[in-house]
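> Could you send the Ohr family peroxiredoxin prediction when you get a chance?

Sure thing. Input:
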Amino acid sequence: MEPIYTAVVTAKGGRDGHIKSSDGVLDLDLRKPKEMGGEGGAYTNPEQLFAGAYGACYLGALGSVAKKHDIDVSEATVDVHIIFNKDDNAFALSGELHVKIPGISVEEAQTLANKAHVVCPYSKATRGSMDVKVIAE
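Output:
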């Protein structure tokens, strides 16, 4: 494997902490959502950040797959649901990718969505360790 880019982000304080990227572009306070016993408010959390990153990466993979089939997905969207689950005394993440591709049937969209899920680096990274459902709408 040949490295192309390395992102570096420093985290401090855990879920009620702060993150900052090495270039200073990302510089955010984090707080637990109310559903997890936190104060909520105008803060982000690790699940939102993961969902945003996953969605952006997934749409890139969808674009690559669609280009091979001469299908325009420039108006496609994906709503990424990252679910924080508790099972007995353990915690685990699961996810859902709700994919919308205007101009094609839901069946065609599901086929493309599944192909993108195979090649997306975030999907590859979570495969086998996180249940992720891909749902074309």
